[in-house]
Design goal:
With 394 residues, the chain is mainly α. It contains 13 helices and 14 strands. Helices cover 56% and strands 8% of the residues. Helix 6 packs antiparallel against helix 7 and helix 9 runs parallel beside helix 11.
């Protein structure tokens, strides 16, 4: 990638983040009356549902605190991060230490899921806020919520099984989110002990989810990595695996560009780009079958926002670490397709749901799944990765 190209992309990502994405959510999501945020908005920011997703509260709070820590100590960002954190602390944690998945506008519980991912997103939010404020109460909450996740992720039977004992399965979500959460806690709590857990989850992905026979990263396997030749076992999620690939590459950077981790992360990206890139229309498709057959989920060929975000980050990080020109080409492909179809030039931010050919399926900008996380994280990480490449060339 030339210096001119790098500067062009830096400008797109930096100004897109600071002048478009974050201002959209600051303008439209803050609940000044009851606390926290309301993310369910239409394309122009009009609120269409007042229920509050706990995942998105943790994610946006983390994003705001991270901007404060890593971009600029802007008081507005810190105040809003505290605004989100206090709502979670006061309304989103159940008596058993678990967190809810959805609460109403006032903070009354609506839904609590089997999974413990509300806890991970809140944990990284509280950890980033601890770094920003130095307040021990936030470090304490970050550790407690991570311990809840860890206990449930590693204690057989503690999470109610999704499948019967006749066909036990496990997904890549736990080791993946475990790695990303531990990385954030290690950084913001300044505690290297989390590296041991990261090693465990990296080995689990390598040994159980990276399938050398099919050259894919499996999404669901048996308890010891067994291939399950049924719909659930054959279904791949390329965007999810690409997200996992850059978690591994991020760990490689932390370990002085560890060559084995670079190889692992780029292999995951290579395999899943090949199967995930839509060769007819462009973009990353949602689901694929490992054997090339039809997929059970009816949205399998749609283009959601977040797989494109993860592909942007992964290709740039692979380029940063290897210098391989193919990753520059892949980044240009995914950037061009995504920025041609997803951004809303009239009202700002991105649409979230497109048909396979890029036509808009829904005008939703936010709901319990989509909020200010994948998109602003992509803008921030792409900007910083490109700056490192620029600096290495100068």
């Amino acid at each position: 990638m030339t210096t001119q190209e790098i500067e062009k992309y830096i400008s797109i990502y930096k100004h897109g983040l600071l002048d478009d994405i974050i201002p959209f959510w600051v303008k439209h999501s803050i609940d000044h009356e009851h606390g926290g945020f309301m993310f369910a908005v239409d394309r122009d920011g009009t609120n269409i549902d007042t229920d509050k997703g706990v995942w998105q509260h943790g994610r946006f709070t983390w994003m705001l605190a991270t901007l404060y820590n890593e971009v600029e100590p802007k008081e507005e960002w810190l105040e809003l991060a505290i605004h989100g954190a206090e709502f979670m602390k006061n309304h989103c944690i159940d008596a058993d230490g678990r967190m809810f998945f959805v609460v109403d506008r006032e903070g009354n519980p609506i839904r609590k899921r089997r999974y413990v991912f509300s806890e991970t997103f809140a944990s990284i939010a509280f950890a980033a806020l601890y770094k920003a404020t130095g307040e021990e109460k936030y470090a304490k909450l970050a550790k407690e919520l991570f311990d809840v996740f860890l206990k449930h992720a590693t204690t057989p039977g503690l999470i109610e099984p999704k499948f019967s004992a006749h066909r036990p399965m496990k997904g890549m979500g736990h080791p993946m989110i475990g790695i990303a959460t531990a990385q954030e806690l290690r950084k913001n709590l300044d505690d290297t002990s989390y590296t041991t857990l990261i090693d465990t989850w990296i080995n689990e992905i390598k040994n159980d989810f990276m399938n050398e026979d099919f050259h894919v990263v499996m999404e669901t396997v048996g308890p010891h990595g067994e291939f399950i030749d049924h719909f659930d076992g054959r279904t791949l999620n390329p965007g999810h695996a690409m997200e996992g690939s850059w978690f591994i590459l991020e760990e490689a950077k932390y370990r002085n560009n560890d060559p084995e981790l670079i190889k692992m992360g780029t292999t995951m990206l290579d395999w899943m780009w090949e199967i995930g890139w839509d060769k007819e229309y462009g973009g990353i498709t949602y689901f694929k079958d490992v054997k090339g057959g039809p997929v059970q989920e009816y949205w399998h060929d749609m283009k959601f926002w977040w797989p494109q975000n993860e592909a942007v980050i992964a290709t740039l990080m692979a380029l940063e670490l290897t210098g391989n020109k193919k990753y520059a080409e892949w980044h240009n492909m995914i950037h061009s397709w995504a920025f041609r179809h997803f951004p809303d030039e009239k009202h700002g931010e991105w649409f979230g749901y497109l048909h396979r050919d890029g036509r808009i399926s829904s005008t939703l900008k936010g709901n319990i799944w989509k909020g200010p996380f994948h998109i602003p994280r992509m803008y921030l990480m792409a900007w910083k990765s490109l700056e490192k490449m620029r600096n290495s060339q100068s």
